[in-house]
Amino acid sequence: MSRPFIIPLIVACALFMENMDATVISTSLPVLARDLGQNPITLKLALTAYVVGLGVFIPVCGWVADRFGARTVFRTAIGIFMAGSLLCAVSSTLPAFVGARFLQGMGGAMMVPVGRIIIFRAVPRADLVKAIGYLTMPALFGPVIGPPLGGFITTYFHWRWIFLVNIPVSLLGLYLAGRFISNTREDSQDPLDVPGFITSALGSSLTMLGLALLGSHLVPLGWAIGMTVVGVAILVWYFRGAMHASRPLLDPRFLQIPTFRASVLGGSLFRIGLGSVPFLLPLALQEGMGMSAFHSGMITCASAFGALFMKSIGPRVLKRYGFRSVLMINALLAGLALASFGLFTSSMPVWLILTIVVLGGFFPSLQFTCLNSIVYADIRSEDAGRATSLASVVQQLSLGLGVIIAGMTLQLSNHLQGHAHITEADFWPAFVVVGFFSILSIPVTSRLPHDAGAEMARRS
Fold this sequence. Notes:
Elements: H1 3-35, H2 44-57, H3 61-68, H4 70-90, H5 94-122, H6 128-139, H7 141-156, H8 166-180, H9 194-213, H10 221-242, H11 258-275, H12 277-288, H13 293-300, H14 302-339, H15 350-374, H16 384-416, H17 428-439, H18 442-445, H19 454-457
Helix pairs in contact: 1-5, 1-6, 1-7, 1-8, 1-12, 1-13, 2-5, 2-9, 2-16, 3-4, 3-16, 4-5, 4-8, 5-16, 6-14, 6-15, 7-13, 7-14, 9-10, 9-16, 11-15, 11-16, 11-17, 12-13, 12-16, 14-15, 14-17, 16-17
């Protein structure tokens, strides 16, 4: 079996776990919240805790992979993620569950970014789009299996069992990585930027936690606002200093590369919109429209079928139109598709809801393939680790920010409409807002050169 095929499939085991875990939790969130005695919107804190774990440890993933070897770090990350899953299964309080999710985030911070480094260094650049396609195809089965599986287990058994699904997948990933992946590392042994690590971790953690706690009533409002302001100030201070450092942990100078900038900055706006969907859509179907967790999961998984179909034609679309045109036009279509989820009502035919959800997976899938491929178009092999650290931390924080923005918009809509509980009418403003964020990525990607990523798209 060729390297452009087997290595992406091994890394896909990790991405499969992450995607399935996220969709399973999102589908089970309303039932899980009631079992823990919490408001369903408050449970966005559990989703955010995972992203905080990512934000803390993603910045060092490139340095750690170069220092200890990509295979060693990749397998260790899978083990940490598996331990976090077991702790989630036995949690009985919100703080314990949030802590277990943070531990999962520590593992996820290394799994997928280091996996991308492995692929970038093992696969020829001309085969990178194909390799990314192999990577994401199996990973898309997570959203296919996750919602109905999580809904079935939650409805007919208990939500605690959903976290045990990760165990056999983790064991398979550990075995395959040990057998097929080389323990590659860079010769450069630069010392770890410890002040940069502490500063970036503190800034991203305070920012994400502060935003997640806004309106949650778990802490006073002033505390949440103060955490957010201090976190943002620390991040701004860090990046201003990093512009003049020799080899900072997160190097903002990579953003001077047009293809990298378009993928990271434009992609972050797109991911804010898409990152909210696993949180918002199951909540709308269950709390707004009164569906069971299983029924909700069966509808939510339809988006993955649209994504799978797009993966089969994505390389041909890129070859025909190029990265710039596809990123611009498809962002508009994807944003409209996400906003259209706000049209759902309990009286709408199920076949029409399913059609809209399929389109909501169809267009974002192509966008992800483009963004995840073009990020490496002009990156040197020796810079792959540091570039991946910056790209991954921005991407993951934007996904978490999507959950926070969706939750805040939903809370505001509920308050302004004067509803005592979440109702069907509260959701459409949130879907419109997250769809608009996806469309906001167009001005960033429009600045790409017309021939950007031509080699990767196999265009003459």
